[in-house]
Amino acid sequence: MPQFHRRRLLAVFGAGLAAAVPAIAFAEGGAEEEAQAAKPRPKPKAKPAPKPAAAPAAEAHAEAAPAHAGPPSVAPEEAMSRLMSGNARYVEGYSAHPHGDAPRRVEVASGQRPFATILTCADSRVPPELIFDQGLGDLFVIRVAGNVVDDAVLASIEYSVIHLGSTLVMALGHERCGAVKATAEALAGKGSPEDADTRIGALAALITPAVRAVPTGSADPLDAAVSLNASHAAAEIFAGSRPLRTRVLSGQLKIVSARYDLDDGRVTPTRQA
Fold it and tell me: Is residue 140 part of a domain?
């Protein structure tokens, strides 16, 4: 079965997926094995024993499972339009605050169908539901300092797309990102001594490629690194997940990167697939 080299996929994303799509082909997985025939049950006793206490919970879980399956929520283009329209309302100061009332809470209590997945920084100034003017059940949000992608983040994104129906994934960086700034300072030999014996270096390791990719002579190296870091995150999502790649190439999913301006509240897309 053919396999794709991760770095090659990242390079393809960076050069533009539209030109590379015709050259990419995916091998289908093997056929599933047939289920074994069930053994005949013994005859029940006159007074059957009560079910174990765990059985009702398992049955309830099985009944609830279909709520996590179904067709995509909306087309990828519609999902992007909803996000940008909501951001425009937020920027202009006319947020509608949709889907925030009690009826909506009751509506989504039994299941969720978020139309978009947002990977963004944990920064307290960048709440996706506010800056995109969305409400309960609209967005599947993953927040981590530096909006980086590791296995747990990628698995969460895959779950939101495959099981919940999201058709748009946005990696959102933001102006004056502290995680990106700290990484740049550490690479320049100016790291904080307070970070010693912490796990902060794990974040810096994932942000480092973007900082090092900033062109020499950039007018604002930090802001350039912020945009590149978001683009790298989008590329990692595409490269790291075959199911998501397949959906992108078939037009069922869009993966985009964007930058949020802390001063005016505007979200600007920087790359999409």
Answer: yes
Q: How far is it, in rounded angstroms, from Cα 234 to Cα 51?
A: 48
148-180 confidence digits (pLDDT tens) = 999 999 999 999 999 999 999 999 999 999 999
| pLDDT tier at 72, thresholds 50, 70, 90 | confident
Tokens of 269: 């897309």
- Alpha-carbon gap, residue 109 to 192, rounded angstroms: 44
Residue 73 confidence (pLDDT): 75
Q: Which residues contact 49 (CB under 8 A, 6 or more apart)?
A: none
Mean per-residue pLDDT of the chain: 82
CA–CA distance, 201 with 206 (Å, rounded to integer): 9
Tell me if 128 is assigned to some domain.
yes
Range name among 20-29, 52-61, 162-171 with the lowest pLDDT average = 20-29
- Give the count of domains, the chain: 1
Would you say residue 43 has pLDDT above 90?
A: no
Q: Residues 161, 170: contact at Cβ < 8 Å?
A: no
Per the domain annotation, does 159 fall within a domain? yes
| Domain span holding position 148 | 70-177+225-272
Look up residue 73 and give its amino acid. Answer: S
Answer whether residue 243 is part of any domain.
Answer: yes
Q: Using CA atoms, how far apart are residues 20 and 12, in angstroms rounded to an integer?
A: 7
b/e for 163-196, b at 16 or more Cβ within 10 A? Answer: ebbbbbbbbbbbbebebbbbbbebeeeebeeeee
Instruction: Read off the CATH number of the domain in which 107 is found.
Output: 3.40.1050.10
